[in-house]
TrEMBL record:
Presence of the UniProt keyword Transcription in the record: no
This protein's name: ATP-binding cassette domain-containing protein
GO molecular function: ATP binding
Organism, as annotated: Paenibacillus campinasensis
Domain of life: Bacteria
Lineage: Bacteria, Bacillati, Bacillota, Bacilli, Bacillales
Gene3D superfamilies, sorted: P-loop containing nucleotide triphosphate hydrolases
Keywords recorded for this protein, A-Z: ATP-binding, Nucleotide-binding, Transport
Positions of the ABC transporter domain: 4-234
Length: 314
């Protein structure tokens, strides 16, 4: 059974269709990586899934049931880590957890036990009685995650949980996500970091302009693009003439420049490696050239025409 599914979902803000006939499914026990350029509709999809906004048409099912107004029993099975960190700075870490646990109906010994377990899980036992005011960004995010899993949700939705935090906390979060999955939690994980998706996701959803434009395992998505190859060329000097000459070769789909390096996406089997080498030799010195199999980053670039991280800060 799908833990969450959207069929033909449309959500408009004014004339703008932010979700434009979206179909998607999250299977039990998966970590699904949700990727998309800024403004693709990822957060809107998440808010619709959690019942935080109403959609204009289409159906949403959670745990096999149609999402409707209240559904407290179903909503209790979901944990949401929002894009902005949502913790109370005037409360200690423990008090934050007690507050969020209380919202989900936990109390007494059970609440106490879950507070201890989640503090340990996110590595904040020693900070239990401290205010998050004194925490680093990574520690605040870990507390935020603890608050979202205090009720042991079956589906955890995380909206860019690692933006702007230190590498140690980021690794901690990625490991925690994998541990939660091994304990049976299903996870929808949004990020602008391709390497995170590659490290933890069993399946990927790619959104652009309100559409889910691809979904599948990383291997499946890459295989579907097997008709393309990536040629990396480094030359002494990149000129506009060289770029233009490469762009005009049959089968070349795109040329990206970064300093003295060019990355060329070309139809596989078009024989462009040799042609590009000849053009580059004629234009000056060649430092290196080689052809790669496409990666998830290439899948994203080919499908959306954009770099995943073009407007986000590290
Ligand atoms: N409440 C709203 N009113 C009007 N427009 C909105 C509203 N919420 C979102 N939008 C618009 O919907 C589009 C999708 O926004 P959304 O936040 O879902 O994108 P996203 O993929 O999560 O982007 P990012 O990666 O930047 O977080 C954007 O053009 C945004 O401006």
């Amino acid at each position: 059974m799908a833990v969450a599914a959207m069929s033909d979902i449309v959500k408009r803000y004014g004339d703008h269709r932010v979700l434009d006939h979206v179909n998607m499914e999250i299977g039990e026990g998966e970590i699904v990586g949700l990727l998309g350029p800024n403004g693709a509709g990822k957060t809107t999809m998440i808010h619709a899934l959690c019942g935080l906004i109403r959609v204009d048409s289409g159906t949403i099912k959670l745990f096999g049931e149609h999402l409707s107004g209240t559904m407290l029993d179903i909503k209790r099975k979901i944990g949401l880590v929002t894009q902005e960190i949502t913790v109370f700075e005037d409360l200690t870490a423990r008090e934050n957890l007690a507050f969020f646990g209380g919202i989900y109906g936990l109390k007494g010994a059970e609440l106490k036990r879950r507070i201890a377990e989640t503090l340990e899980f996110v590595g904040l036992e020693k900070q239990a009685n401290k205010s998050p005011k004194k925490f680093s960004g990574g520690m605040k995010r870990r507390l935020n995650i603890a608050c979202s899993i205090i009720h042991d949700p079956k589906l955890l939705i995380m909206d860019e949980p690692t933006v702007g935090i230190d590498p140690q906390s980021r690794n901690h979060i990625l490991e925690s996500v994998q541990t939660l999955q091994s304990r049976g939690t299903t996870i929808l994980y949004t990020t602008h970091y391709m390497e995170e998706v590659q490290a933890i996701a069993s399946r990927v959803l790619i959104m652009d302009q309100g559409h889910v434009i691809a979904q599948g395992s990383i291997e499946e998505l890459v295989r579907n693009l097997h008709h393309e190859e990536k040629i990396k060329l480094e030359v002494m000097e990149v000129t506009d003439d060289l770029i233009r000459a490469i762009e005009q070769l049959g089968g070349v789909k795109r040329v990206n420049r970064s300093g003295s390096k060019l990355q060329i996406i070309s139809q596989a089997g078009a024989g462009n490696l040799d042609r590009i080498l000849s053009l580059a030799k004629r234009a000056g010195g060649v430092i290196s050239i080689h052809a790669d199999q496409p990666s998830l980053e290439d899948v994203f670039l080919t499908l959306t025409g954009k770099q995943l991280r073009d407007t986000k800060e590290d």
